[in-house]
Automatic annotation (TrEMBL):
GO molecular function, one term: lyase activity
Pfam families in the record: 2Fe-2S_thioredx, CbiX
Name by which UniProt lists this protein: NADH:ubiquinone oxidoreductase
Organism: Novosphingobium guangzhouense
Entry keyword annotation includes Lyase: yes
InterPro entries to which the protein is assigned, alphabetical: CbiX-like, Thioredoxin-like_sf
Domain of life: Bacteria
Gene3D superfamilies: 3.40.50.1400, Glutaredoxin (3.40.30.10)
Record key words, sorted: Lyase, Metal-binding
Length: 251
């Protein structure tokens, strides 16, 4: 069987040091000779995003792609929402996709306990973090008008909230949304209420609830609501005290 292209998947990283660690992991995997190509990606904040890495390997002609999740602990719903995201991305892509397979999570593999024991045994040889320095300076209260909350309650997590959050944060950085127009801040949230509309996003101070939000939904919310001050109607649901159901095509 031809060797697969391997993408090592983590949640998020934006600083240079953790990104260098991801690259080192990929380099080590490449030296094992088990993969035709190795790269890394993030499901939440950080670049490259998983969709971007997949697209690059498809464009390069990969015959098979294996995703290796470096997620400890890994939510029980992870495989489900990854599968839904892959199906959605494939449907929106005109190219022929190779098989995309999900490797087992690290904690299910033999030898994990021995690896942790080795970490404990070598603690004395590891450079310990310095004593924290207490900050005495003040903090600026953000002046940005818009607050974007991405729900991470159980139903939203199962529906792929991590990908929604990651796309929002990456676009926030790419478009300088904190300082563009009236400005925006973003935050993860526990349950926002309308679980059947997962993934749910709310934008304040307007208090607008958006449901069935995916990457296209985030793009619409940014373009319409954050930059133009108008509701992104295709994803918006009224707070009228009535039960709401996802509209066809909004998820």
């Amino acid at each position: 069987m031809n060797k697969p292209d391997v993408i090592v998947v983590a949640r998020s990283a934006i600083a240079a040091a953790p990104i260098a660690e991801m690259q080192a992991l990929c380099d080590g995997l490449a030296s094992s000779g088990i993969a035709a190509h190795t790269s890394f990606a993030f499901t939440e904040q950080g670049e490259p995003a998983l969709r971007q890495s997949l697209s690059e390997r498809i464009e390069a002609g990969a015959n098979r792609i294996v995703l290796v999740p470096l997620l400890v602990p890994m939510e029980a719903s992870f495989a489900n929402w990854i599968a839904k995201a892959l199906a959605r991305w494939r449907a929106a892509d005109e190219r022929d996709w190779p098989p995309v397979l999900l490797a087992p999570p690290p904690m299910t593999l033999p030898g994990t306990a021995e690896l942790l024991a080795r970490a404990v045994a070598t603690t004395d040889d590891w450079a310990q973090p310095p004593e924290p320095v207490l900050k005495t300076e003040g903090s600026i209260v953000p002046a940005q008008k818009h607050r974007v909350l991405v729900c991470h309650g159980a139903p939203c997590t199962a529906a792929g909230a991590a990908l929604v959050w990651g796309h929002l944060r990456n676009e926030q950085a790419r478009q300088s949304l904190r300082t563009c127009g009236e400005g925006m801040m973003s935050a993860k949230s526990t349950c926002l209420g309308p679980c059947s509309l997962a993934p749910v996003v709310q934008v304040w101070p307007a208090g607008t609830t958006y449901g069935g939000v995916d990457e296209a939904g985030i793009d619409a919310i940014i373009e319409r609501h954050i930059l133009c001050g108008q509701t992104a109607e295709a994803y918006a649901y009224p707070a009228d005290g009535r039960k709401q159901r996802l509209r066809n095509g909004s998820a």
